[in-house]
Amino acid sequence: MTPPNEVTTDLSTFTGTWTLDPSRTSIQFHTKAMWFLPVVGTAKAVEGSGSVAPDGTVSGSLVIDASSIDTKNKKRDAHLQTEDFFEVVTYPTITFTATGGRPTGAGALELVGDLTVHGQSRPITVPATVVTEGTSATVTAELEIDRSQFGLNWAKMGAGLHNRVVIAAHFDKA
Fold this sequence. Notes:
The protein is mostly beta strands. The chain has a single domain, classed as Beta Barrel (Lipocalin), CATH 2.40.128.110. 4% of the residues lie in helices and 60% in strands. The protein is built from one helix and ten strands. Strands 1, 2, 3, 4, 5, 6, 7, 8, 9 and 10 form a ten-stranded antiparallel beta sheet that branches.
């Protein structure tokens, strides 16, 4: 067992099944409006799980409720739910499905998988860290996403197509 709060990437130490705790998981995104105005929003994870085989093979998923996106601006949030953006009636979730993972250095790893947004899946490599405490683990990742790769092309003059996403997903060993 890894000592409390130690950052590790020896994936075999995580052998077993892990269940996401949505109440202890945070998802935040950052973008710009009108070239320079920062927009920060949040979204809620609704479910997720992970599995690590004895040889360190990783698989798992993280499911986000697309209608939970909150930028603290009701008019903007309502627009984000329309066909101009996430079209949440047709595509209610955003999903990352991990198909593998590998250590990349002290305290770092890469998760490989597919990100599905607006019904379109794209392969993605996610740099992450894992911090353990007892039978819990928090996977933290920060990545840049070009939303136009998922058909989200609507942009008012100066709106950013690139978004920085920061995720802290908390898992408990099942």
